[in-house]
Amino acid sequence: MVRTLGFKQLTEEHITNNVFRVYYHYAVRKDDILHQQVLASFPLCDVTVEDLSQNPQFCKLLATLTQHVDSTGLTVSLKTELDKAEQKLQSQRKIWLRSQGLFQTLKEMIQEHCVKKHYSTVPPDQNMFYDTMEKCLLVARCVRMLDPSNTTEKELPNVLGLEPQQVLQLMPLEKNVQRMKQSLPHELEKHLKKQCLSLLCYYHPEWENESENLKCTKLMYLATQMDKDKKKAESLKESSREKTILLQRQTRLYLSELIKCIQLLQTLILDHRLKIQTDLDKKKLDYFEGKCELVLQKIKTEMVDIQLDTYTPDTISAHRKIREKLEAELKCCQDEKQSVELKLASFEVLGKEFQALAEEYCKLRQEIEMKNWALKEFTHYNNK
Fold first, then answer.
1. Are residues 114 and 205 in the same domain?
2. Is 329 part of any domain?
3. What contacts 229, CB < 8 A, 6 or more positions away?
4. 26: left (phi > 0), else alpha (psi -120 to 50), else beta?
5. Lipoprotein: present as a keyword of the record (predicted)?
């Protein structure tokens, strides 16, 4: 019965641990999925997985905001209005680009005609067509500049005081304009075809020597191919931007880890510097002591070598004899000095009377020496 109870308790505890472990792994996995969703929803937000893990309430707030805000930070309503405005802007832009493209194409046609006219002979009707088109473009441009729009002040004076009607009088003849309008679609189509074929040859240089019909056939697929290439370039650009953001995050993470490593190294240096410095100083002291001892021994060796080179056996024996003689003379002098000091001490016992006699004796000795010197000099002079 005890064994059965123990087995039952062990089984219940084991089951509880397994359930807790499974629930823990499920919660961790769920948090990881939530973190990845939040980071994917806010790619421009400077937040890491570690920040979300340390601030779960902030993570929940961001997860709730994903239902109302897009990846750029705009609300759903504002995004809808922005998309409508963007569509309207794109339609207006298409209209403007269409007119601007047509205007630029006509200008290119006129410029090519002017260049061609300088290098070759052009038929008169073609000259009339391009001259009429150039004048019409110039008059239309001037009229547009003189015609005030809703965005300008109508009270401003006109350029040079001209009115649009005055400029319209400079239009070419009506028959020439009508003839130009009839020929314009054909000439425009021919020019655009030439430009498209040039673009095709630029895009695929290997197709330059093929026939015109084949080029026209391949030209039908050029727009699709360019659209694919454009989308591919945009996808590469987006991928590059994502990689740049990832690189910035990794760089920031790397710098934070590097700063932690530097702080750890600083701590190790501050904690162990004194101990290491003491051992190092002790080793340096032992080294310098040994070096000083070696230098002293070397000095002694040099001194002995100098003495051996200076004092030979003959010099040493001579010095020994001189020393013995000097010591003997020194001993004699010391004995004489001692005897004199004894006599002087015996004379000092007599007192001041002996001092007076000694002074008188000194004077007499000096007089005797002077007289002897004078007698000697006198005798020497007489002998001469």
1. yes
2. no
3. none
4. alpha
5. no
Burial of 19 (C-beta count, 10 Å sphere; 0-12/13-18/19+):
exposed
Q: What's the structural domain count of the chain?
A: 3
In angstroms, rounded to a whole number, what is the distance separating the alpha carbons of residues 236 and 154?
A: 49
Residues 65 and 103 in one domain: no
pLDDT per residue, tens digit, the chain (384 aa), is 334 434 334 455 544 455 445 444 444 555 666 667 666 666 656 666 676 777 777 777 777 767 766 666 667 777 788 888 989 999 999 988 888 888 888 888 888 888 888 888 888 888 888 888 888 888 888 877 776 654 445 555 566 667 777 777 778 888 888 888 888 888 888 888 888 888 778 877 777 777 777 777 777 777 788 888 889 899 999 899 889 888 888 898 899 899 999 988 888 777 777 677 777 888 889 999 999 999 999 999 998 888 787 777 788 788 888 889 989 999 998 998 888 788 777 766 666 667 777 778 888 888 888 888 888 887 776 665
Whether 30 and 104 share a structural domain: no
Last residue within a domain, chosen from 73, 91, 115 = 73
Domain coverage including residue 361:
351-384
* pTM across the whole model: 0.41
Residues 6+ apart with CB under 8 A from 170: 135, 139
Q: Alpha helices of 159-312 — where are they, by DSSP H?
A: 164-168, 174-203, 212-219, 222-310
